[in-house]
């Protein structure tokens, strides 16, 4: 049997009290600003353009959005971190479902899925999580940001921005599956 509400409310540390995720989010925004050329890229902290995509009332506010200024193509980023226990990776998976792909495409009109989840701390290193990532997320739609390594993040960003935003030299881009 689960905990009764009186026992839950008596806990000193309630769900939502842990705000340490803010550091991971800020590290990511600062990293984007350091890696991306501001003349080519716009970096937005907690963009609100998807906040009413569900019934014009509810939606998603990811941690960051980057826009490639020459063509207006965008990528949204959700940053998740946790210690050795939790379900942040599973909660993030909602942004990578077939139906979410369809809804986001209807809102953005983009021919690719513009949502990436950045995994930090234990989510990036603990096998209990890293083994699940390829099952929950498509390739290049998640990144394990081990030790907040700026070079690793820069390499990942170069790959995904070329793939969906700036386009490879042959002019083809990977499109969202039908």
List its salient traits.
alpha/beta; 8 helices; 37% helix; ECO RI Endonuclease, Chain A; 5 strands; single chain; 178 residues; five-stranded mixed sheet; disordered C terminus
Strand % is 15-25%
Order of helices and strands: HHEEEHHEHHHEH
Discrete helix count: 8
CATH superfamily: Eco RI Endonuclease, subunit A
- Overall domain count: 1
User: What summary fits the major beta sheet?
Assistant: 5 strands, mixed
Oligomer: single chain
Task: State the helicity in percent bands.
Answer: 25-40%
How many angstroms separate the termini? Answer: 44 Å
- CATH topology assignment: ECO RI Endonuclease, Chain A
The CATH class designation is Alpha Beta
Tally of strands = 5
Topology:
Layout: H1 5-10, H2 21-35, E1 41-45, E2 64-68, E3 74-82, H3 88-92, H4 98-108, E4 115-121, H5 122-125, H6 127-130, H7 133-136, E5 142-145, H8 150-166
Parallel strand pairs: 3-4, 4-5
Antiparallel strand pairs: 1-2, 2-3
């Amino acid at each position: 049997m689960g905990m009764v509400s009186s026992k839950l409310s008596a806990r000193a540390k309630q769900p939502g009290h842990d705000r340490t995720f803010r550091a991971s989010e800020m590290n990511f925004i600062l990293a984007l600003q350091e890696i991306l050329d501001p003349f080519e890229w716009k970096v937005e902290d907690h963009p609100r353009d998807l906040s009413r995509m569900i019934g014009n009332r509810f939606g998603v506010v990811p941690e960051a959005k980057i826009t490639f200024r020459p063509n207006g193509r965008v990528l949204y980023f959700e940053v998740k971190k946790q210690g050795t226990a939790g379900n942040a990776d599973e909660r993030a998976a909602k942004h990578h479902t077939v139906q979410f792909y369809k809804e986001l495409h209807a809102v953005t009109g983009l021919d690719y899925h513009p949502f990436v989840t950045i995994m930090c701390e234990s989510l990036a290193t603990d096998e209990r999580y890293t083994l699940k990532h390829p099952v929950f997320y498509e390739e290049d739609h998640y990144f394990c940001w081990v030790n907040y390594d700026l070079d690793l993040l820069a390499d990942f960003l170069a790959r995904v921005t070329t793939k969906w935003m700036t386009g490879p030299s042959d002019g083809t881009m990977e499109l969202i599956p039908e």
